[in-house]
Amino acid sequence: MSNRKSAGKIRAVLIGGSGYAGFEAIRWLLRHPGVELVGIYGPPNELGPMEKFYPLLSGQVTLSQELFDADKVAAVGADVALLCVPHVIAMNYVPALRKKGLRVIDWSADYRLRDADEYKKWYAHEHTDTGNLAEAVYGLPEYFADEIRTAKLIANPGCYPTCSALGLAPLLAAGLIEPAGIVVNAISGVSGAGRTPKLANHYPERNESFEPYGVGNHRHMPEIEQTLAAIIGQPVELLFQPHLCPMDRGMLCSIYARPTAAGAGKSAEELTQVFQDAYAKAPFVRVRTDVLPATKYVAYTNFCDVAVRVAKGRVIVFTALDNLIKGASGQAIQNMNLMFGFDETAGLI
Amino acid sequence: MSNRKSAGKIRAVLIGGSGYAGFEAIRWLLRHPGVELVGIYGPPNELGPMEKFYPLLSGQVTLSQELFDADKVAAVGADVALLCVPHVIAMNYVPALRKKGLRVIDWSADYRLRDADEYKKWYAHEHTDTGNLAEAVYGLPEYFADEIRTAKLIANPGCYPTCSALGLAPLLAAGLIEPAGIVVNAISGVSGAGRTPKLANHYPERNESFEPYGVGNHRHMPEIEQTLAAIIGQPVELLFQPHLCPMDRGMLCSIYARPTAAGAGKSAEELTQVFQDAYAKAPFVRVRTDVLPATKYVAYTNFCDVAVRVAKGRVIVFTALDNLIKGASGQAIQNMNLMFGFDETAGLI
Amino acid sequence: MSNRKSAGKIRAVLIGGSGYAGFEAIRWLLRHPGVELVGIYGPPNELGPMEKFYPLLSGQVTLSQELFDADKVAAVGADVALLCVPHVIAMNYVPALRKKGLRVIDWSADYRLRDADEYKKWYAHEHTDTGNLAEAVYGLPEYFADEIRTAKLIANPGCYPTCSALGLAPLLAAGLIEPAGIVVNAISGVSGAGRTPKLANHYPERNESFEPYGVGNHRHMPEIEQTLAAIIGQPVELLFQPHLCPMDRGMLCSIYARPTAAGAGKSAEELTQVFQDAYAKAPFVRVRTDVLPATKYVAYTNFCDVAVRVAKGRVIVFTALDNLIKGASGQAIQNMNLMFGFDETAGLI
Amino acid sequence: MSNRKSAGKIRAVLIGGSGYAGFEAIRWLLRHPGVELVGIYGPPNELGPMEKFYPLLSGQVTLSQELFDADKVAAVGADVALLCVPHVIAMNYVPALRKKGLRVIDWSADYRLRDADEYKKWYAHEHTDTGNLAEAVYGLPEYFADEIRTAKLIANPGCYPTCSALGLAPLLAAGLIEPAGIVVNAISGVSGAGRTPKLANHYPERNESFEPYGVGNHRHMPEIEQTLAAIIGQPVELLFQPHLCPMDRGMLCSIYARPTAAGAGKSAEELTQVFQDAYAKAPFVRVRTDVLPATKYVAYTNFCDVAVRVAKGRVIVFTALDNLIKGASGQAIQNMNLMFGFDETAGLI
Q1: Among the four given CATH numbers 3.30.360.10, 1.10.150.120, 3.40.50.300, 3.30.2040.10, the one describing domain C160-323
Q2: How many Å lie between the alpha carbon of B323 and the closest alpha carbon of chain C?
């Protein structure tokens, strides 16, 4: 992976390569047959060869993370900017990138919530780029592939929203479960909490420790509700409760819902069929009938596994994915594949 | 810990010392000021020095696990039998032990469900000791201490039932949450699955893998419902969903309930007060206001931590304990302390 | 990855797909641009769809593991057989495969030790295929690439021998360390111990437990000595001591050697240069000067990282690799690349 | 554990309760029959209830960590100060504590190296309390029990030195291995690296990562050499190489030595007998003949397990202990037991 122009490949730049999502993006782009990574950019305090941040990348990536500058980025002739920076920073960069003509896939939360007031409420910051916000497409390929193909700006979904929405959308869309009173009990591996060291995730504190957090106030809750509402065309109300699990990566949602009148009495097999129909053409959603989802079965892949069961009058859905891949960078590449006309699975197996 | 008679100490025998609960019982009995362990007994294929099963016990326990025989057990003059054997086997042993006059604390499920038909339904086996079943006391000290003190036979609660019931009973008893439609989303460390090797818990399979199991059919579900119904005097209906978490030990329940009319509008602080009142005299339940429960905070202790929150119109309770201690052997010793007039915390700090 | 013939691709069969090395081979072959996997074969008790053994493979591999039969294997027109079966079984299969004209890459130990008597001594079994043994090439690409290119039968090296030999060969070849009295202190992740459940690797026993094993009698010790002797043309004597480390994968060797007269006084920098020269053309050996090797830096890659230091008159070399990749299946594919004229790194980034 | 005076108990203060060693000291003191913890003191930025630092301690310890002040400490009438603070700070506190008449057990390195010049060389700081340094006793109970009993100031040994010295001293003292050219390959759980968060020990970085560190310059190397030299009365030269292992706690040394003429030809059984004789009266050293040492067998105990083997003309010793207990706080309490005439094992089973 070098700076030379490869015939027939699109050119991508990565902005924010030193976090876990950036790292994962690099690893997958290395294998992508149609993309050349031509630049990596970051903040002043995080510059230098990528192997400095990730010794694993030594010998694979010769690019250094350089200071971000929109003009410089434009000068390398990139077709797409992969933007792996924190929220607020993202909306500071997007306008310039868009003006330079780059299509942008943004990992941050800045363009996910459609309503600037909602954004302000949950992120405690005024939205300063409502123009692009209005044009952003939510990058959940299983539901918005058509819009994604032509999008200029993708809001790449959060890990929890992807994992939750893929487990709920088919049943909600089919009118088989109530769109209110849903509980999403979610767990994530620790890489989901980012790369900045803190006591709670210091190895001797986190190892052998499972715990809930963000009760009633996790920012992914409104994103999940908004996504599902967009899919079914009516409001969805749910309680989202995340937990931190002592493992590197992986995410699993255990979702509890009540059947509607139409859904009452449906067997697990019938509900499974609903999922199979919904995801018949989705290459990265596997509706499991052989096993229940487990994080090990999706780790280091772009798959989201789903299974549905019925017990005590309730519908229970389990979904699992790798929080850094289908929950972040793999999904971004899946979006990129759609945007640039590659096979949806290109570089993702 | 030897065979010699210690003045003023009660004499205990352990039946089934080679499983994790037996191991944990031994470790805590070593520190108990009022108990002498005078014999360990097991099945024909699991005999020999305890250090053979647990090299950690070398130099601490000189007793060997000998072949179980009720006459032999009686001959050592034991006051109490701690019965750590699987269900069905337990009810084969209890009648003889009781006839010999020993008080029995049984870790198995054989005397937990009050109704022999329920037992048969969930354990697929006829109950063959309904006489003792009728006299058994459910050993949850926070709610049944009076009965425990005089009991001849204790059904030591399951780990999940302890963790679930302690989180629900105060709110149900106060009429603040609906006794139906409750969801208990539980996770357990792998030691809860026992010591017998199998592929699912082979280290390279289980490490980094979190997964649900027992959907709608876990045997602890009816035990939780029965326990709560006994406490509040009316039926309780809940959905219990367990998961396996890649860690040695620890259990955490995330419990979702709907407030009753009386509970609606109560703040987390008000509900916390209900817990504080309920457990004011319970030495091993800690109602947390400083942190949310986490398995690390209770690991290797007999504490159960509880916290309550309110979000989106629902009541959420988190409880955590060490599945082998408050969820098994520590609780058994707590019961023994009550039965023999020791301080409830003797040997358990 | 299907059964249809792809133009320009070689055709490979995998024999023994249900172990960890087989699994890893499949994952990498899925990404290989020049190879089509056309059949998977195994023993009678391990047949069926690959996703049955590895739910992760669902949706990626449609092949089932079928009963091994040399005629059947020959009928699919394979160019190469990847043989991931235990020792002794391997040498039962190889003669038939070779007769059918397939080139064979054997993961087992059956063709590693050159001397049939040594084999019998260490593996407690008569060697029954000494004819092919004489023709087998030891598949360490960094040292035997020329022989590998034309080999009909490759003895794919053990994980520990790869990790040890790559750390010692350059210094021995340069005459800078004594070829006797070397200590190789090695650690491996638990996947190296295979997929069969046993108490020692049951999660609650292995988690948080680090321990030595195989003192003075590990079968990789003579393989390491033989390999190094073959490289430098004189006997090498070393003590190899393996340990099991509570992690999935990864291997790290800490190697202690005494400098020769020629090596005495050489600095770490000078010795590093020796490694850099030795591996200048080896795409999968990274001589680290920035960090010491760590298993995380090579996990899920085909790299072997090496660093050398001098302290208290001794030379210390650290090497790290992923035991299932550079220590097994990645190396096999690297060998296959050489054998079939692919770029050495094809499918391995 | 309260402030009231308990008849017949000695009074202890803990200085530095917020680090892992302080935490572990508190947990064990809670169980000690002869000691009352009457105060906990720390630096200005680490004050408050102990449960703030360790939620696990809630309900067990009512003491708060108060600002350290020698007068205040003296005023509580303590018999002994347990000093769990970093080096340099320790030697700032010791003179005042000693002047107030307290006996001191110091966990830091400040009084371990006998020679102030050596101290300066390894710790890059002038020794400012050479008076007390001259009187300090090295607290390795297995070898210096007599001096410990009457000591006013104990230098509590480092974890690695304890683990290394207990494995080497008997063979060196018996003249069976050469006192030079020894290699100690050691691994430690991550709690040994302290409680301050840093990237290297951030959970997603450390999990699944095993790595060497401190090549040739770890400060425990001279401490090990000094200790062994003091025991055998002649210089000892060894190479100590530590590694970090992805687990909470536990330490294991794999020690490689050459037999002397007297040791040549000795069997593992004969060498085992040497250890058994050496540790016949040491309650916390277990010479294993049944299993090789493993960290799980000593975790959460004050035991050090030892086993010896002979292979390829070399003597190999394995030792294991819990780095926070026998490697730190358990050993300190063992020293305290000797100093105050308690049974050596009091409070430590």
Answers
A1: 3.30.360.10
A2: 13
Residue of chain B whose alpha carbon sits nearest to that of D27: B349
In three-state secondary structure terms, B84 is coil
The C-alpha atoms of residue A262 and residue D317 are separated, in whole angstroms, by 70
Distance from CA of C204 to the nearest CA of A (A): 11
Within 10 Å of residue D45's Cβ, how many Cβ atoms? Answer: 6
The reported pLDDT for the residue numbered C1 is 37
Contacts of D246 in chain C (CB under 8 A): 245-247
- Chains contacting C with at least 3 CB pairs below 8 Å? A, B, D
How would DSSP label each residue in C338-349?
HHTT--TTTT--
**Residue A105: which of A294, A333, A268, A299 has the closest Cα?**
A333
Q: Which residues in chain B are contacts of D286 at CB distance < 8 A?
A: 58-59
Test A309 with B207 for CB contact under 8 angstroms.
no
Contacts D51 to B, Cβ<8 Å: 290
Mean of the per-residue pLDDT values of chain B: 96
Amino acid A75 reads A
pLDDT at position D146 over 70: yes
CB–CB of A208 and B310 under 8 A? Answer: no
Q: What gap in Å lies between CA C347 and CA A262, rounded to an integer?
A: 49
Residue A78, sorted as left (phi over 0), alpha (psi -120 to 50) or beta, turns out to be beta
Instruction: Say which amino acid occupies A178.
Output: E
- pLDDT reading at C8 higher than 90: no
Contact: C58, A301; criterion CB under 8 Å: no
Q: In angstroms, what separates the C-alpha of C7 from chain D's closest C-alpha?
A: 40
Tokens describing residue B45: 């294929």
Domain ranges in chain B are: 10-157+327-339, 160-323
How far apart CA B233 and CA B245 sit, in angstroms, is 34
Tokens of residue A264, six digits: 């009452």
For residue B318, list chain D residues with Cβ-Cβ distance below 8 A. none
Q: Which CATH architecture has domain A10-157+327-339?
A: 3-Layer(aba) Sandwich (3.40)
Task: Give the phi and the psi of residue C332 in degrees, each rounded to 5.
Answer: -60, -40
Query: What are the tens digits of pLDDT across the range A94-145?
Result: 999 999 999 999 999 999 999 999 999 999 999 999 999 999 999 999 999 9
Q: Which residues of D touch C249 (CB under 8 A)?
A: 208
Identify which of D246, D254, D312 has the shortest CB distance to residue C216. D312
Q: Are B296 and D30 an interchain contact pair (Cβ–Cβ within 8 Å)? A: no
Q: What share of chain B is helix, strand, coil (3-state, %, to 5)?
A: 35, 20, 40
Nearest to C298 among A30, A31, A56 (CB): A56
Find the mean pLDDT for residues C253-266: 98
Answer whether D210 sits within 8 Å of C312, measured CB to CB. no
Could you give the C-alpha distances from D195 to A201, D283, D303, in angstroms and in order? 11, 30, 23
**pLDDT one-digit tens code per residue, A5-34:** 455 899 999 999 999 999 999 999 999 999
C-alpha distance from C89 to closest chain B C-alpha (Å): 23
Does the pLDDT of residue C3 top 80, yes or no?
no
Q: What is the pLDDT of residues D33-64, one digit of tens each?
A: 999 999 999 999 999 999 999 999 999 999 99
Alpha carbons A324 and A22: distance in angstroms, whole number: 9
> Does the pTM of the predicted model rise above 0.80?
yes
In angstroms, the CA B80 to CA A106 distance is 65
- CA angle centred on D345, ends D339 and D348, rounded to 5°: 110
> Which chain D residue's Cα is nearest to B27?
D349
Q: Is the ipTM of this complex over 0.90?
A: yes
